Amino acid sequence: MRVHVADHPLITHKLTVLRDERTPSPVFRALTEELVTLLAYEATRNVRTTEVTVRTPVSEAVGLSIAAPRPLVVPILRAGLGMLEGMVKLVPTAEVGFLGMVRDEETLQPTTYAERLPDDLSNRQCFILDPMLATGGSLGAAIEFLFQRGAVDVTAVCLIAAPEGIEAVRKMTEGREVTVVVGALDEKLNERGYIVPGLGDAGDRLYGLV
Ligand code: PRP
Ligand code: URA
């Protein structure tokens, strides 16, 4: 598994505002979208392309076009939904599938409560969106789900990760083609499985308490 920490000053600046407990939901949502666009730039570095030729007003130009089959973007509901617009803005031709997962706050185990994905992901490049990589349980299960359907490589885009979660996902995905692109690698998890310093509960901060 490759891990890329995209510690660009613009990303760190926006993440700092996101972390601030005083940042209200509308600003939090706008910043999340902006951050994803910046992270997506790195996450799509190896997107498959094919060579194409176009005619400019002056001559022919050889360029690149995103190859078929189209990339599949998979936000993990609920919090991953806050990242979707930023990603599809950058890759408008991508298809979008959905995975609904929730972590039990006592056991920290994830369960999948919704799934809307193509049955066959053979030969597909997939991009998972989830702001928080904490214990890694949710992301590890989501990645396995996509490989079971035939995906060939999976890139996860996360805003903040804990070292414990990165290691857990690394173990769960051994031998798989997996990349994690993250805006910040934080210090640790606390006893409740929250990332420290983190930003709290991403879903609640995006959409309010449930
Ligand atoms: C959060 C977050 C991740 C998961 C990370 O979702 O968006 O999906 O927790 O934790 P893990 O790495 O320990 O699995 P949550 O379960 O709170 O659901 P929500 O998005 O509906 O708020
Ligand atoms: N889920 C979140 O939203 N935040 C954390 O810190 C851990 C899991």
From TrEMBL:
EC category name: transferase
Annotated metabolic or biological route of this protein: Pyrimidine metabolism; UMP biosynthesis via salvage pathway; UMP from uracil: step 1/1
EC code(s) of this entry: 2.4.2.9
UniProt keywords, alphabetically: Allosteric enzyme, Glycosyltransferase, GTP-binding, Magnesium, Nucleotide-binding, Transferase
Binding site for uracil: 195, 200-202
Chain sites annotated for binding 5-phospho-alpha-D-ribose 1-diphosphate: 78, 103, 130-138, 201
UniProt similarity note: Belongs to the UPRTase family.
Stated name of the protein: Uracil phosphoribosyltransferase
Source organism: Homoserinibacter gongjuensis
Name of the coding gene: upp
